[in-house]
Structure formats: C-alpha cells, structure tokens
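Sample log: Metalloendopeptidase.
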Amino acid sequence: MRTFLVLALLAMISGSHTLPTVVQWEEDPEQTPGFFEGDIVLRPKSRNCMSNPSQHWPDGIVYYKFSEGIDDVRKDFIRNAMNIVEEGSCVHFKEADDDQPYFVNITGNPGGCYSTVGFVEDISILNLHKHDLNTGCYRTGKIIHELLHTLGFYHMQSTYDRDDYIRIAYENVKPDFVHDFAKYSKDFVEDFGEKYDYGSIMHYSPHAFSANGAETIVPLQEIREGLMGQREALSTVDLIKLNKMYKCPELQVKD
Ligand SMILES: *[C@@H]1O[C@H](CO)[C@@H](O)[C@H](O)[C@H]1NC(C)=O
C-alpha cells in the first residue's frame, strides 16, 4: 500500500544555492574516460557560475528534444523515467517546440550516460548510450539519476561534509579517476538541511572507479548492503531535496 505523506514546507530556501554547471557522466568510467567526475563534462563557459543563483530550470519546466536516432521505444522508456520524477515533485518535462531557446538535447551517442548539471540558458545535453532496455544507460534508475543531474543535483559523495560519512579509499581508486571523487565546498552545494544520504540515487557505488576490485567508498556507518549506489528509486531525501530545490508547494513522499 502506498502512503502519501504530505508535508508542508515551513521553511523556504533562503538565498541562493549555487551549483557549478557541468555535465555528469554516470559511473562507468571505462566508457567515459577523461571526463570530470565520471559522468560530468565541464561546460567551460559556465564553470565559474559559482555565484549564479539561476541554475534551476525556470518554473520547474525542463524542456527537452530527442535527437535523431532515438527510437520510439526508447523515448517511451525515457518518458517513463521523467514521469516518475514528475510524480514525486512539481517539476515537469516538456518536449520543446522549434521556438524554445533552451532545452536538453537528449542524445544516444556511444560512450556512456551523462548529463549537464542544472539549468543553462542554452542547449544542454543528456546522453544515453543506446544500450538494450533495462541494461546500462537504459535502466530507469540510471535515467532518473541523469535527470537529477539535469535538474541540478551533484553526486551525493561530492558534498562538503562527506568525509564525516564515508572514506574515499584513494589507494584503490584508478589513478586517472581520482578527480571523480571531488568534494565541493559549502558555498557550492546546498544540502537543504538534509543529512548525508547513503541511499541517494545520486550516490556512487562502493566500488566506483576501483583499480583493484576493492572498495573505493567505505561508509563510516553501518549501512544496509546494496544501499549505497542504488539505482532503484529516488530516496526520500532525494525527493525532499528536489521538492525544496524547486520550491514545490506540497512535498509528496511515497513510502
Ligand atoms: C543534439 O545532439 C546531436 C547528437 O550529438 C547533434 O547531432 C544535434 O545537432 C544536437 N542538436 C542540437 C539542437 O544541438
């Protein structure tokens, strides 16, 4: 049974939370070497938008266009993931018409799954390598993860206080991928008052970018096996943050 818990947001977000605008690649580093933080591609012109308050999509509407070569079955699969994000928040995904000046170009280029982080008044990217359905980039949770990048989320383990919750085992990280474990300062990322969330759909898995098969992210608390790095569903905290980020009037969190 589903319980809908409607929480009034008592506190609105004070001030702006500013997020560097980049493109995030998902944690298949082998597929996307050389990119910032695994599934991130820096957009050089907005790399320094640290004090830019407008990195959310205006009115919570994410405009998108499917680029050529994405078949109808895949479009439906992507739309289904969009629907899940919409159901848990007040954001909307709308197919852009020809006059729309800014939108996400949803592409199917080889080389991984990645997305621009946050809103840019331009054409941004969400790429999903055309894997078979329910594999690789074409897993609903993976697409939701990328959509959250599009909406302005960074990886969970990038947050400023992550060292209180996890240890990055650099000794096990592939040398070329050390930068994938970047940490952002408090000025750069906003936690909306929510505590560290091991179960976020935005958290890397314990073996991300491992050089030797050993853990690269070691939780400092006892957590359920499989929690960290899950790509099954938005966590409650993910939903709360998304709702706060987009100032949704009512927060609907499903059990
Ligand atoms: C979208 O991406 C595709 C594939 O990379 C590219 O061919 C196309 O020109 C892009 N569309 C726009 C509007 O940028």
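Observation: The helical segments are 72-87, 140-151, 236-245.
Observation: The CA atoms of residues 165 and 248 lie 29 Å apart.
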